[in-house]
């Protein structure tokens, strides 16, 4: 698979993300990527291990799941209509194929990053055990956040970044190595205002780990020309919750979960753009192998 193919598919990912509410035919998306439909279909499946239609439907359903969690004011019918489903029945059936629950049950039962404690029948021992485990996890994550995080609300100005796309959790270290190697001859990281970042286009709450798409990149002081599979995008301006940590890479999941707990308990709502990480050191060179890192959650 050539780097040029991957770069064009990067643009396709961005195009689909921006147009999930619109009709996305194979012909239209292939034209945007400057390929014939046949050639594009083959390349897209090689990179994503999904057909274009499978990818688009999955992304629509995952967006619906995110709206069910974060946008309580929207009705299920409104969400289905917004994402282009022809009827509530079609939306419900498609959603259930992915999450094994209909949208209504998903909204009622899906944990909102520990934002609310659900009512449990104490007569049911299994539910009680689940409730107690839930409370224990909640307390542990709150304590972890209190002990390890400095949390602030910051305004971020629009900033360009260069990146490579990585899908899934396996092999992500190679993507970091690639972007660092790309930076080296250009001496980009000699400018200490430029930082290695990881942008999450999917949430592990609603997307299977092997499907989560990430951009591994480096912030830039200005847009530059790139080649191969290195692409350019922008981190949008806006208000962010910023959690600053010094921790082991193994504790990143705890850090993210704890920060989302903080967001919910302090009355913030996630905005409709992507969380990201900013790395301030090479954790392999840290005496305790710890990352000095900021986690950014966009909020309304």
What this model shows, in words?
The structure is a single chain. With 300 residues, the chain is α+β, with helices and mostly antiparallel strands. The chain folds into 2 domains: 3-109, Orthogonal Bundle (Arc Repressor Mutant, subunit A), CATH 1.10.10; 151-299, Regulatory factor, effector binding domain (Multidrug-efflux Transporter 1 Regulator Bmrr, Chain A, Alpha-Beta Barrel), CATH 3.20.80. The protein has helices at 3-18, 26-32, 37-48, 52-70, 76-82, 88-99, 103-109, 125-148, 172-186, 252-265, and strands at 150-156, 159-167, 196-200, 213-219, 231-235, 238-248, 276-279, 290-299. It has an 8-stranded antiparallel beta sheet with strand order 1-6-8-7-3-4-2-5, with helices on both faces. The radius of gyration is 20 Å and the shape is globular.
